[in-house]
Specification:
140 residues, mainly alpha
Length: 140
Protein backbone atom coordinates (compact mmCIF):
# COMPACT_ATOMS: atom_id res chain seq x y z
CA UNK A 1 0.00 0.00 0.00
CA UNK A 2 2.84 2.36 0.82
CA UNK A 3 4.33 1.62 -2.60
CA UNK A 4 1.06 2.58 -4.23
CA UNK A 5 0.89 5.84 -2.36
CA UNK A 6 4.49 6.68 -3.24
CA UNK A 7 3.92 5.77 -6.88
CA UNK A 8 0.76 7.87 -6.87
CA UNK A 9 2.66 10.75 -5.34
CA UNK A 10 5.46 10.53 -7.90
CA UNK A 11 3.08 10.27 -10.84
CA UNK A 12 0.84 13.02 -9.46
CA UNK A 13 3.71 15.36 -8.79
CA UNK A 14 4.98 15.09 -12.36
CA UNK A 15 1.47 15.59 -13.66
CA UNK A 16 0.99 18.69 -11.52
CA UNK A 17 4.42 20.05 -12.34
CA UNK A 18 3.84 20.64 -16.03
CA UNK A 19 0.96 19.91 -18.34
CA UNK A 20 3.47 19.56 -21.18
CA UNK A 21 2.93 20.26 -24.84
CA UNK A 22 1.57 18.20 -27.61
CA UNK A 23 0.58 18.85 -31.14
CA UNK A 24 -1.35 17.05 -33.80
CA UNK A 25 0.79 16.31 -36.83
CA UNK A 26 0.02 14.75 -40.10
CA UNK A 27 2.28 12.05 -41.52
CA UNK A 28 5.64 13.26 -42.80
CA UNK A 29 5.19 16.66 -41.09
CA UNK A 30 7.99 17.97 -38.81
CA UNK A 31 7.26 18.75 -35.12
CA UNK A 32 7.52 22.38 -33.96
CA UNK A 33 9.43 21.35 -30.79
CA UNK A 34 11.72 18.58 -29.56
CA UNK A 35 9.98 15.80 -27.65
CA UNK A 36 7.92 12.65 -27.87
CA UNK A 37 5.02 12.37 -30.25
CA UNK A 38 1.91 10.52 -29.09
CA UNK A 39 -1.05 9.40 -31.08
CA UNK A 40 -4.51 10.67 -30.02
CA UNK A 41 -5.32 7.49 -28.04
CA UNK A 42 -2.05 7.63 -26.09
CA UNK A 43 -2.54 11.34 -25.42
CA UNK A 44 -6.06 10.67 -24.11
CA UNK A 45 -4.76 7.85 -21.90
CA UNK A 46 -2.02 10.09 -20.46
CA UNK A 47 -4.44 12.93 -19.79
CA UNK A 48 -7.01 10.72 -18.08
CA UNK A 49 -4.41 8.79 -16.05
CA UNK A 50 -4.08 11.67 -13.56
CA UNK A 51 -7.79 11.72 -12.76
CA UNK A 52 -7.87 7.92 -12.49
CA UNK A 53 -5.02 7.92 -9.98
CA UNK A 54 -6.68 10.74 -8.04
CA UNK A 55 -9.96 8.83 -7.89
CA UNK A 56 -8.21 5.65 -6.77
CA UNK A 57 -6.34 7.56 -4.09
CA UNK A 58 -9.53 9.24 -2.87
CA UNK A 59 -11.34 5.90 -2.73
CA UNK A 60 -8.50 4.23 -0.83
CA UNK A 61 -8.20 7.13 1.63
CA UNK A 62 -11.97 7.11 2.21
CA UNK A 63 -11.91 3.33 2.71
CA UNK A 64 -9.06 3.52 5.24
CA UNK A 65 -10.74 6.41 7.07
CA UNK A 66 -13.98 4.41 7.26
CA UNK A 67 -12.07 1.44 8.70
CA UNK A 68 -10.36 3.66 11.30
CA UNK A 69 -13.66 5.34 12.17
CA UNK A 70 -15.41 1.98 12.56
CA UNK A 71 -12.63 0.64 14.78
CA UNK A 72 -12.74 3.80 16.89
CA UNK A 73 -16.53 3.57 17.28
CA UNK A 74 -16.25 -0.09 18.28
CA UNK A 75 -13.56 0.68 20.84
CA UNK A 76 -15.58 3.61 22.23
CA UNK A 77 -18.71 1.43 22.53
CA UNK A 78 -16.69 -1.28 24.29
CA UNK A 79 -15.35 1.28 26.76
CA UNK A 80 -18.86 2.61 27.38
CA UNK A 81 -20.19 -0.91 27.97
CA UNK A 82 -17.34 -1.64 30.38
CA UNK A 83 -17.90 1.67 32.18
CA UNK A 84 -21.62 0.99 32.57
CA UNK A 85 -20.96 -2.54 33.85
CA UNK A 86 -18.43 -1.27 36.41
CA UNK A 87 -20.78 1.53 37.44
CA UNK A 88 -23.62 -0.95 38.02
CA UNK A 89 -21.27 -3.22 39.96
CA UNK A 90 -20.17 -0.28 42.11
CA UNK A 91 -23.77 0.76 42.82
CA UNK A 92 -24.68 -2.83 43.72
CA UNK A 93 -21.73 -3.12 46.13
CA UNK A 94 -22.58 0.23 47.77
CA UNK A 95 -26.20 -0.86 48.15
CA UNK A 96 -25.14 -4.18 49.72
CA UNK A 97 -22.80 -2.38 52.12
CA UNK A 98 -25.58 0.03 53.13
CA UNK A 99 -27.89 -2.91 53.88
CA UNK A 100 -25.09 -4.59 55.85
CA UNK A 101 -24.47 -1.43 57.88
CA UNK A 102 -28.16 -1.11 58.74
CA UNK A 103 -28.34 -4.77 59.83
CA UNK A 104 -25.20 -4.44 61.94
CA UNK A 105 -26.59 -1.31 63.61
CA UNK A 106 -29.82 -3.16 64.39
CA UNK A 107 -27.84 -6.10 65.81
CA UNK A 108 -25.79 -3.78 68.03
CA UNK A 109 -28.95 -2.08 69.32
CA UNK A 110 -30.46 -5.48 70.17
CA UNK A 111 -27.36 -6.65 72.01
CA UNK A 112 -26.78 -3.52 74.08
CA UNK A 113 -28.41 -3.70 77.51
CA UNK A 114 -31.40 -1.48 78.16
CA UNK A 115 -30.23 -0.51 81.68
CA UNK A 116 -26.79 0.96 81.01
CA UNK A 117 -26.60 2.92 84.26
CA UNK A 118 -27.18 -0.16 86.34
CA UNK A 119 -24.34 -1.99 84.61
CA UNK A 120 -22.13 1.07 84.98
CA UNK A 121 -22.85 1.18 88.70
CA UNK A 122 -22.22 -2.55 89.18
CA UNK A 123 -18.96 -2.31 87.22
CA UNK A 124 -17.76 0.72 89.21
CA UNK A 125 -18.67 -0.88 92.57
CA UNK A 126 -16.91 -4.15 91.71
CA UNK A 127 -13.85 -2.17 90.62
CA UNK A 128 -13.74 -0.26 93.91
CA UNK A 129 -14.22 -3.45 95.95
CA UNK A 130 -11.47 -5.23 93.99
CA UNK A 131 -9.11 -2.29 94.55
CA UNK A 132 -9.80 -2.23 98.32
CA UNK A 133 -9.23 -5.99 98.62
CA UNK A 134 -5.96 -5.83 96.69
CA UNK A 135 -4.78 -2.84 98.74
CA UNK A 136 -5.49 -4.69 102.01
CA UNK A 137 -3.54 -7.69 100.76
CA UNK A 138 -0.48 -5.55 100.16
CA UNK A 139 -0.77 -3.67 103.44
CA UNK A 140 -0.89 -6.84 105.57
Amino acid sequence: MLNRILALFLISSTAYADDGKFTLLAEEQPAPFEGVLFDPIATANIMTEKSNWQLQCDIEVEYNLDIANTEFDLERKNFNIRYEALDQEYKLIVEQKDVEIVKLQETIKKQSPPNKWAWFGVGSASGVIATVIIAKQFIE
